[in-house]
Write a structure and sequence with these properties.
CATH architecture of the largest domain: 2-Layer Sandwich
CATH superfamily of the largest domain: Histidine kinase-like ATPase, C-terminal domain
Radius of gyration: 30 Å
CATH class of the largest domain: Alpha Beta
Number of helices: 24
């Protein structure tokens, strides 16, 4: 059967959408009692999930061929509206509940067009519970439905209808559904006051637009006047091109296929870059599957087999020992896999992994056929891909030898820990922390000032290798990187085991200057690319040493920012009845000067007699003595630590590629764009 015939069959099957297609499974009562079970959490992320659930319903209409436009409006009063031009939720009386079908959908868990009938062949959403859950967790919701020449509306509070379904326009044109809601502060607390984040909503809707090609998705923010329209004819091919926009690619445009096989629609975009990392994203019915699943298994098997077969055919892969492995063909790969199917089987409540075995067969078959043809029709690009993957194979063998050397070295020597590591006596990783310190000077102060019981110190000499531009074999030849890997004790890359890590707090502590920021960025790049689970587990932190010491007589305080320094200054000046500031010292005082100043203070008049505060600016950790470093930066009772997290994986990947990659132009644009946001740049 041709694709066109199949499409027409789907369209005709779904055209008789009415009350009979809505099936009721259970009530709504548990939602407000345990909201986390339905939306993941009651934090800011959970509140945004309400928008995703309503948008998913509109996207389902689009995937079924009944909607072409979805619009999201963020209002000044905290409300959100999601509009689509789909068929509109049926409003006639439902045969089971004897209520309006609209009210049934909005007040009954598991009531929707996704459980039976011919409402939807393919759907995402939270198993159809989306609208009712959003209704239950909103202190206000209004549903407006336009169909059959009329617009009906109904309002709700905390999931309960405040009135009947009423016709508000009997001469309406068009069709569609508008859901306007306000999150309930009883559920989401302070998140409601913070409001919805423009960037978060924007990125999610952009991704959905890529995955639903040919559908317009618009977002308007009435709070700021910002507006954005997404429309991608290229589907995931355009998505891949966007992911690689700041990278050097081997060929363009990306490979692309969009075919249906055995009831599964398979859409794949693929491109190789000069990078060394894989960037693969998998989706089922527009739902992101971070742990992959059967569609990823099928894709990877077909990719490895197809490239090996073509390599043998043209004589680049000569025998079995030259055969490319899955790791080889994934180096520098950017790929998007999107499948759409009638009954997805997800593993886990978060839908992290797709379990349908038939999807593996469909993806493997479609990709094998069309990618094989692509290689035949693009021999130049094909040779570039084979060359790239064969180079990766050679590097893999070299990296294995280097990695085994590092691991063997670690096993033999300290038990063999690096000589520069000042380890702690505590053996429980959950109670231990490692400070990665810049330079021997700061390392000396940190070693003297630390608590030896639970704090370990690893000083790094100079700047470590930029791992964004280096393969694993080159990286493992760097002494500072090797020392860090051995100290952590959990291996590296594909042999990394987070359960073996020796410290559950890994703290980067660098100077507050340009060099310190660069070293911090190099370390963050290393952890993100080769030990990402340290970040996802919440083990990685950045220390926040103070920038200033402000002293007036016996009153000495630390300030961690310019704003805090100004506040401390104002408080001190108020005490002595003065209103002007002193200039910050350009150079740090020496220990002798500090001693002389302390002696002078003993002889000086007390506060309120006209003296002005003394301010010392710390540019390096080595400028602090051990006691000061402990008091301000290492003492758990007083220190400030910033935990490193990843909220937007795609955005994070783009930032690392831009700042640390080979392409100069994107980095220059980034610097020009953000230069004005940088303050107090010490060069």
């Amino acid at each position: 059967m041709s694709d066109k015939k199949k499409d027409s069959k789907i369209s005709s099957a779904s055209s008789g959408y009415g009350a009979k297609d809505i099936q009721v499974l259970e009530g709504l009562a548990p939602v407000r009692k345990r909201p986390g079970m339905y939306i993941g959490s009651t934090s800011v992320e959970g509140m945004h999930h309400l928008i995703w659930e309503v948008v998913d319903n509109s996207i389902d209409e689009a995937m079924a061929g009944h909607a072409t436009t979805v619009e999201v409006i963020l209002y000044k009063d905290g409300k959100v509206a999601v509009k689509d031009d789909g068929r509109g939720i049926p409003i006639e009386k439902h045969p089971q509940t004897k209520k309006s079908t609209l009210e049934t959908v909005l007040t009954t868990l598991h009531a929707g067009g996704k459980f039976g009938g011919d409402g939807y062949k393919v759907s995402g959403g939270l198993h159809g519970v989306g609208l009712s859950v959003v209704n239950a967790l909103s202190d206000y919701l209004k549903a407006e439905v336009t169909r059959d020449g009329k617009t009906h509306a109904q309002e709700y509070k905390q999931g309960v209808a405040t009135g009947a379904v009423k016709a508000i326009n009997t001469k309406a044109t068009g069709h569609g559904t508008t859901i306007t809601f306000h999150p309930d502060k009883e559920i989401f607390g302070e998140a409601v006051d913070e409001g919805f984040a423009w960037k978060t909503v924007l990125e999610h809707l952009k991704q959905q637009a890529y995955l639903t090609k040919g559908v317009k998705i618009k977002i308007d923010d009435e709070r700021t006047g910002e507006s954005q329209l997404f429309y991608f004819e290229g589907g995931v091919q355009a998505y891949v091109a966007d992911l690689d926009k700041n990278k050097t690619v081997l060929f363009e445009p990306p490979f692309y296929v969009d075919k249906e096989r055995d009831g599964v629609r398979v859409e794949i975009g693929l491109q190789y870059t000069e990078d060394f990392n894989e960037n693969l994203k998998a989706f089922a019915n527009n739902i992101y599957n971070p742990e992959g699943g059967m569609h990823v298994v099928g894709f990877r098997a077909a990719l490895t087999r197809t490239l090996n077969n073509y390599g043998k055919k043209i004589g680049m892969v000569k025998d079995a020992k030259d055969a490319l492995t899955g790791d080889d063909v994934r180096e520098g790969l950017t790929a998007i896999i999107s499948v759409k199917l009638a009954n997805p089987q997800f593993e886990g409540q978060t839908k992290a992994k797709l379990g349908n075995p038939e999807v593996r067969t469909a993806v493997e078959s479609v990709f094998n056929d069309y990618f094989s043809n692509y290689l035949e029709e693009h021999p130049g690009d094909a040779r570039k891909m084979i060359g790239k993957t064969m180079l990766a194979a050679k590097a893999r063998l070299a990296a294995r030898a280097a990695r085994e050397t590092v691991i063997r070295k670690g096993a033999l020597e300290g038990m063999t820990l690096p000589g520069k590591l000042a380890d702690c006596t505590e053996k429980d990783p959950a109670k231990s922390e490692l400070y990665i310190v810049e330079g021997d000077s700061a390392g000396g102060s940190a070693k003297s000032g630390r608590s030896r019981e639970f704090q370990a110190i690893l000083p790094l000499r100079g700047k470590i290798l930029n791992v964004e531009r280096a393969r694993l074999d080159k990286m493992l030849s760097n002494n500072e990187v090797k020392a860090l890997i051995i100290a952590l004790g959990a291996g590296i890359s594909d042999q990394f085991d987070i359960e073996k890590i020796r410290y559950h707090r890994v703290i980067i502590m660098t100077d507050a200057d340009v060099d310190g920021a660069h070293i911090r960025t190099l370390l963050l790049t290393f952890f993100y690319r080769f030990m990402p689970s340290i970040i996802t587990r919440g083990y990685l932190y950045i220390a926040q040493p103070p920038l200033y010491q402000v002293r007036l007589g016996k009153d000495m305080r630390w300030a961690y920012s310019d704003e805090e320094k100004d506040k401390v200054m104002a408080e001190m000046m108020a005490k002595i009845g003065k209103g002007k500031e002193t200039k910050v010292e350009a150079e740090p005082v020496t220990e002798t000067e500090v001693s002389e100043e302390a002696d002078a203070e003993k002889k000086a008049p007390q506060e309120g007699t006209g003296r002005t505060p003394n301010i010392q600016r710390y540019k390096g950790l080595g400028e602090m003595n051990a006691e000061q470093l402990w008091d301000t930066t290492m003492d758990p009772a007083h220190r400030i630590l910033l935990q490193v997290t990843i909220e937007d994986a795609q955005g994070t990947d783009e930032v690392f590629s831009t700042l640390m990659g080979d392409e100069v132009a994107p980095r220059k644009r980034f610097i020009q764009t953000h230069a004005k946001q940088v303050q107090n740049l010490d060069i």
